[in-house]
Amino acid sequence: MGSLQTPTNLSNKSCLCVSGRVVKGLRVERQVGLGFSWLLKGRRNRKVQSLCVTSSVSDGSSIAENKKVSEGLLLGAERDGSGSVVGFQLIPHSGDATMVESHDIVANDRDDLSEDTEEMEETPIKLTFNIIFVTAEAAPYSKTGGLGDVCGSLPMALAARGHRVMVVSPRYLNGGPSDEKYANAVDLDVRATVHCFGDAQEVAFYHEYRAGVDWVFVDHSSYCRPGTPYGDIYGAFGDNQFRFTLLSHAACEAPLVLPLGGFTYGEKCLFLANDWHAALVPLLLAAKYRPYGVYKDARSIVAIHNIAHQGVEPAATYNNLGLPPQWYGAVEWIFPTWARAHALDTGETVNVLKGAIAVADRILTVSQGYSWEITTPEGGYGLHELLSSRQSVLNGITNGIDVNDWNPSTDEHIASHYSINDLSGKVQCKTDLQKELGLPIRPDCPLIGFIGRLDYQKGVDIILSAIPELMQNDVQVVMLGSGEKQYEDWMRHTENLFKDKFRAWVGFNVPVSHRITAGCDILLMPSRFEPCGLNQLYAMRYGTIPIVHSTGGLRDTVKDFNPYAQEGKGEGTGWTFSPLTSEKLLDTLKLAIGTYTEHKSSWEGLMKRGMGRDYSWENAAIQYEQVFTWAFMDPPYVR
Fold first, then answer.
1. Run of H or E including 74
2. What share of the chain is helix, strand, coil (3-state, %, to 5)?
3. Model confidence over 251-307: pLDDT tens digits?
4. Do 432 and 415 contact (CB within 8 A), yes or no?
5. First to last CA, the chain
6. How open is the CA angle 545-505-588, to the nearest 5 degrees?
7. Which in 163, 231, 582, 600 has the greatest CB count within 10 A?
8. What are the residues whose beta carbons fall under 8 Å from the beta carbon of 472, sequence distance 6 or more?
9. By the 8 A CB rule, do 90 and 100 touch?
10. d(CA 168, CA 155)
11. Residue 506: CB atoms within 10 Å
12. What pLDDT, on a 0 to 100 scale, did the predictor assign at position 639?
């Protein structure tokens, strides 16, 4: 091995010698001991054998000592903006030390050091972030759909990967049993004053630490009422703009004032604002905080779960948002003439989601397909041009699912457990479901299911049109859901017409949804648009074959069956169809039914390929980390 030479011509600078080479630009920090940079990039195969650090003292002379660093302390890696390792902190026990020379580098021997160095090259150090989720709902505390699932599961997956994560959501109290979900949240005894709607509003913060995540609930009287987070039996709440403006302001204060775990999150954090309810957050960072030097190192990402909802209110309400007057243009939104209520309507409104898209550092959607669809006139709901202009920072990441809750080998709601290696239990689940629903028990009869909201978006009208012809085939159909009265009544009527073939379960029941997912052979999802969709993921995990309209996240996650691929072994996990018509749906169903009845080996291959895919939130979390890294690579988009 070659020995390292102490450089003699650098009396005024710290330096690093690696295998006889001097790397300049290193520093000695007298207050905390010794700091040095260890440059690894581009040296994958170089043998690093020993290290020499030289530092000048006050009189300018060079000092070197042959002293082992056996008593030193090796701290965490220093990283540059891209996440590459650029150095470590080595602090000797003596706080007065200004120079250390070592031939061991705290390693047990030189060979270990060389091996560790090469391993570091191959496994980059992962950056960790302080992440603030701002959301109107987070399961299990509050949930009406996919937004609650995402904000209830993704934070835990990110926390498990080493990030510090806070979720800020309202503390909804309606006087019912659901209030018990907040039983473990304690009052932090911190009050924040929020200035909006022409007055000063005081909010309180409740906190629960669970699964590595700080769950923070904003407490205010406007969140204490019967109903869902957004409305009741009479419709949407009239003060939703106020309620979610309050949430956004409180969320911006939370990292600064809440001493969670003994210290605050601070200013260098990343805000993930979900849908229009939290869309004011990126605007507040840019307009209210950064001009005064606060959050200058923070970043914001707006996550779009459903662009059809944008938080549009009359232009006269702008002053309620708590933004400076000069920022009106960021949220100004003028409806086209054809969309106005009457001839005197000027169409002037404020659109907070539009403002977030305009100023956020990055934009995310819940699938790659949906990230493209929202840039089109058909899918952008008026925001397609703005989104197209920011396409360079627009990404889509498919949602994950709770693989513990949705697991056919452990599911407590189903009649028999099964797995990709033993599918026998699925037949038992099917016959048990037929018995529960009062259908003839026929294991070989194709059982087709639908689970979802009964409305126009979910394509229930397409199923309605297809049912008369579908019932001419040897099949059984079960539908679970609630929604528009016309579809609920149609389901009941259809059950009366086809007593041995059709069952309707009006309402929603979680255990029943698990049993339908496990017991059916085919799951229908003819949605007109679907940002991501979860039921098709649940179905594939349970060996149930999805038939979906080719849109958004459905197109991304369901791969068309091709029986001739892979040397006749086949590929794909289901069927997609387009255009969205009852005729096309029937054609696809006939193809699937024929495969089920006549090609059992192909059907089993479909089932196993779907069950073998990775649907975990950890997989999604890795992709989110990449977007977080990109957000911090550039300065804030609005400074």
1. strand 73-79
2. 35, 25, 40
3. 999 999 999 999 999 999 999 999 999 999 999 999 999 999 999 999 999 999 999
4. yes
5. 52
6. 30
7. 163
8. none
9. yes
10. 11
11. 16
12. 67
pLDDT of residue 146: 85
124: preceding bond cis by omega (within 30 degrees):
no
The amino acid at residue 538 is: Y
Q: Look up tokens 């009941």; give the residue.
A: 492
d(CA 6, CA 14): 11
Total residue length of the chain = 639
Tokens found for residue 187: 């009052």
Check: CB of residue 102 under 8 Å from CB of residue 3: no
3-class SS at 325? helix
Burial of 70 (0-12, 13-18, 19+ CB in 10 A): exposed
d(CA 285, CA 298): 8
Place of tokens 């002293």: 67
What pLDDT does residue 67 have?
38
**CA distance linking residue 201 with residue 242, whole number of Å:** 11
Residues 6+ apart with CB under 8 A from 174: 224, 225, 226, 227
Strand pairing report for 130-134 and 270-274: parallel
pTM, two decimal places: 0.77
116: pLDDT strictly greater than 70: no
> CA 348 to CA 218: how far, in whole Å?
31
